[in-house]
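Incident log, structure service

09:12 report received: a user says their structure output differs between two submissions of the same chain.
09:20 pulled the input from the user's history:
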Amino acid sequence: MDRRGRGEADGKVGGGDGHGPGFEIAFALVLAVTGFAAHAQTYPNKPIRLVIGSFPGGGIDLAGRIIAQKMSENLGQQVVVDNRGGANGIIGMEVVAKAAADGYTFYMGTTGHISVNPVIRKQLPFDVDRDFAPLTQVVSLPFIVYLHPSLPFKGLGDLIAYAKAKPGELTWSSSGDGGLPHLSGELIRLASGIDTRRIPYKGSAPAFNDLMGGRVNYCIDAVSIGLAHVKAGRLVALATTAPKRLAILPQLPTVNETLPGVAVLNWYGALLPAGVPRERVGRLHGEMVKAMHAPDIHAKLASHGFEANGTTPEQFGAFRKAEQARWGKVIEQAGIRKQ
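09:34 re-ran on a clean worker, output below:
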């Protein structure tokens, strides 16, 4: 007589389906992992918001929109630009700091927003180290010293000579306190020993508009914002802050040809709210770098004076901190008070 149980006689141990408890646990784990992977692969399944800490019309707005459009094409989801200008980027950064850490909101800001504000502001409504995660250094760009054509200067040396002869008479505009246009002007002032009056504005676009209208004498800002006006004769380019002459304006002298050692490259960087899942950080980083280095976008950025970067999050995080230390020293040397 066969004394084995029905299940054992049939070769089925631990249940009528032939699978024991270990199989059921393993199967459940497989389902969980597969479900998670499928969920991760759906990102993004809705529009992504790119918050730019500047008003429409400035250099960072232009660069951000060029890249966002290409990302939208590649992703099949809209990357929507949300301009949140004012307070030298603080308003826009606060929006992103408080956003959900789901990869659907990220920030693009200038050197001033990301690395200078922490050393020039007494208080911020966020902590850059705690509330943000680095994504990438997007582009780097030099500035140009733009002059209103009502003044007869042919070069930076002429402006310096005039300012020394008539202290306090010349006026210049820049975006908010602590931005690189502001600090570049301070470097030129310190290196040359001139006395000129700075008129601060809420952003690059209004600062530049007043230069165009002749309400200030000169302005230091991105190549992209004024190149067309220079070519049309509506403004005069006196010098570039780049370490060497620009390929798109080879006849334009550098500031350091007149003031040795004075050179500034601005940059725009991208940040995420802290806590975004690693795989989403990787996807967004990859898509942003892919967009900016696409041949058509790379060429378009270059035509406006932008050099596409695309560093890793780790590289950008270290760079951001080094820039913060560098500009902290400049602020101290210039005697600029914390606000």
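09:41 both user submissions now match this output. Likely a transient worker issue. Closing.
09:42 reviewer note: The radius of gyration is 27 Å. Residues 1-19, 25-39 have pLDDT under 50 and may be disordered.
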